[in-house]
Amino acid sequence: MQAEPTSPRTASAGISSSLTLLFALTCGVSVSSLYLLQPVLDDIQSDFAVSTATAALVVTAGQLGYVLGLLLLVPLGDLWNRKLLAPSMMIASAGALLLSGLAPGFIALFAASILVGISAATAQLVIPWSSSLALPSDRGRVVGVVMSGLLMGILLARVVSGLIAEFGGWRSVMFVCSGLMAVLAVIVYFLAPPDTSRPHQPYGRLLLSVVRIIRTETMLRQRMALGFLTMFGFSAMWTSAAFLLSGSRGEHFDYSEAVIGAFGLAGIAGALGAPLIGKLADRGHLRLATTSAWLVTIAGWLLLAWPGTPLPAFIIGLVVFDLGAQSSQLSNQNAIYSLAPEARSRVTTAYMVTYFTGAVAGSVCSGFAYAGGGWGTLCLIGIGASILGLLTWIAFDRWNTRGRVSGSDQPVAEATPSPRRTSS
User: Fold this and answer.
1) b or e along 279-290 (b: 16 or more beta carbons within 10 Å of the residue's beta carbon)?
2) Which of 86, 140, 236, 312 is 20 to 30 A from 301 via CA?
3) Are 423 and 400 in contact (CB under 8 A)?
4) pLDDT in tens, 290-348
5) What angle, 0 to 180 degrees and rounded to 10, lies between the N-to-C axes of helices 311-336 and 286-304?
6) How many other C-beta atoms lie within 10 A of the C-beta of residue 137?
7) What is the pLDDT of residues 100-118, one digit of tens each?
């Protein structure tokens, strides 16, 4: 791969703290639209008179749309001006959220949720953008901060959604978020720096190059597999948690929308820990970070599966589980952003399409598993997926260190990739 192009900004000062925070806020607000409906699924089920499994499909619709946005729009970040592209997608997101709030029936809400998901891919334009502006020695920290914004958006979306729905119903959640998205789009347009110019190439060739990158980069393929399993468990847990906490199957929980949303606060520890994981990767301990992340995720599932689901174990389980899942995600992104600096948006597409395919699989599996066997069945599936993730990572790590690739645990941000780099 060619060396990363430099500009005066990246060569000297890197990315400023204020711009990093703006990108973090943009990521958080953009991705939050995917999770606004999770704590109000019980309301949607009642409003449209559908089953538990059917109501969960609106979450799946958003994730399907997100995969489409990742596949079709995010690669344009390597071709078009991101200062124009990102705000345009945010305006589109505001319109899609407005349509969701006005949906007259479940089919209309499902269709609008797909549009919401497509436009929410703005977050995955901003992450590689911030990475390209950061100094190599600081890339793990910058990506960690921006990822913290994204993770905070995922978690706080449930809290804010629950609070708004408590007083104004689930439709008011969509209206409020639509207005917020439109305002932030204007702010990003005026405050984001001019984007660097990139060589032009046809759109079709741009998409095909994603396949080429996947084929030539073994490390990317490995992290794609780990990302799928990470998001499978994350999506499955949070989708079913809304039904558990509402007592839809007669469980001892019977909380309102606001209280259900507030449980998202328990996962903020994971988001706050993300920059620390980025620093660990910068210091050359990416393998340790990845292994630890999977062990923590398994521990979180075991707490969530505690017999009888006592509230203290459930809350601690949420904290531990989210810390493990978010640490796994950040370690994956630190690894892949050492590859193909001139094609970071396409690397993001390859990884995140697989990642959110895992989300789709997790939410679908969650709805049917919970409807058929309850929370215990869901936890068994989650534990199994996490153990599989740990074993898969161990297998990849051993394969990488048996002479096929360098076994050194270098700082990812400073590694110099080759066309067929395979180290993780």
Assistant:
1) ebbbebbbbebb
2) 140
3) yes
4) 888 899 999 999 999 998 888 889 988 988 898 888 888 888 877 887 776 667 778 88
5) 160
6) 12
7) 999 998 999 999 999 999 9
